[in-house]
């Protein structure tokens, strides 16, 4: 005869099933949680430890915030490439297309330099400006649609689009002429193209932005401009950057980021340099 304190067979089965369910739930939660673990500080690029622009701890924290956000613009390895250039060039003139969780990082790493952001989304711009009032942000507008990409690429092959000069006086239909004056009248040392929107076959696309950036870099008084184009896995960013920033000026590709080092076409040494060598 069974003791009253002895669990029945049904109760034992329920206990086993409950234990099994909790075990499965623990495994699932553990795997999901581990995928969102912040990057270990020891895995950050070593050059941050010798950054002489801002305290290393602050630089590390900014990188951590920019690359571990729920929707990061760039990952750690992509960001590290731009940081290496800023480490050498800052304080400098740095032009960034687009606002994001990495904006404060760019402005801070270019300590004592000038970092300018261009953004077309007024609501997003207002929110970022409220959170980071120290950033220098200008509103811009784009008149293109990404569906025009093939047509604009064809027009970009015309002779008038191969003339290097101030975009405002260009006869090429890809040249953007309605940016704030500061964009055209500043000698930019570093330019980041991470906007406007151009995914899922919607938005203005970056066709004209990439072309105009190419003119700004080549029309610089002298020296070289480091240009970064993000999202190169997409057709527009890949095709237009190769065509108008030039294959010959590509220095490196990391993940979805492509780095160009573009020399001025106004210097004596390169006065006869074609639009793309």
Automatic annotation (TrEMBL):
Q: Name one GO biological process term.
A: xylan biosynthetic process
One of this protein's Pfam families, by short name? IRX15_IRX15L_GXM
Main location per the UniProt record: Golgi
Q: What InterPro entries does the annotation carry?
A: IRX15/GXM/AGM
Membrane-protein topology: Single-pass membrane protein
Where does the source fall among the domains of life? Eukaryota
Q: Could you tell me what this protein is called?
A: Glucuronoxylan 4-O-methyltransferase 3-like
């Amino acid at each position: 005869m069974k003791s009253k304190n002895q669990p029945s067979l049904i109760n034992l089965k329920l206990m086993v099933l409950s234990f099994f369910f909790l075990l499965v739930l623990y495994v699932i939660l553990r795997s999901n949680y581990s995928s969102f673990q912040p990057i270990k500080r020891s895995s950050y690029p070593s050059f941050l430890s010798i950054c002489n622009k801002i305290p290393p701890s602050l630089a590390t924290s900014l990188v951590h915030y920019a690359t571990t956000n729920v929707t990061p613009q760039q990952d750690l390895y992509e960001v590290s490439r731009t940081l290496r250039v800023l480490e050498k060039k800052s304080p400098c003139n740095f032009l960034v297309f687009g606002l994001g969780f990495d904006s404060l990082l760019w402005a801070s790493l270019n300590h004592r330099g000038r970092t300018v952001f261009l953004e077309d989304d007024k609501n997003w711009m207002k929110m970022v400006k409220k959170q980071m009032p120290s950033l220098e942000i200008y509103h811009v507008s784009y008149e293109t649609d990404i569906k025009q990409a093939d047509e604009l690429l064809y027009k970009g092959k015309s002779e008038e689009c191969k003339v290097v000069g101030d975009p405002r006086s260009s006869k090429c239909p890809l040249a953007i002429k309605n940016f704030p004056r500061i964009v055209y009248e500043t000698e930019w040392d570093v330019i980041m193209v991470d906007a406007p929107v151009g995914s899922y076959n919607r938005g203005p696309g970056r066709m004209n932005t990439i072309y105009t950036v190419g003119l700004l870099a080549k029309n610089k008084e002298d020296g070289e401009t480091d240009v970064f184009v993000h999202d190169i896995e997409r057709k527009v960013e890949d095709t237009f950057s190769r065509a108008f920033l030039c294959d010959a000026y590509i220095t490196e590709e990391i993940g979805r980021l492509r780095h160009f080092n573009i020399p001025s076409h106004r210097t004596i040494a390169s006065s006869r340099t074609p639009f793309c060598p």
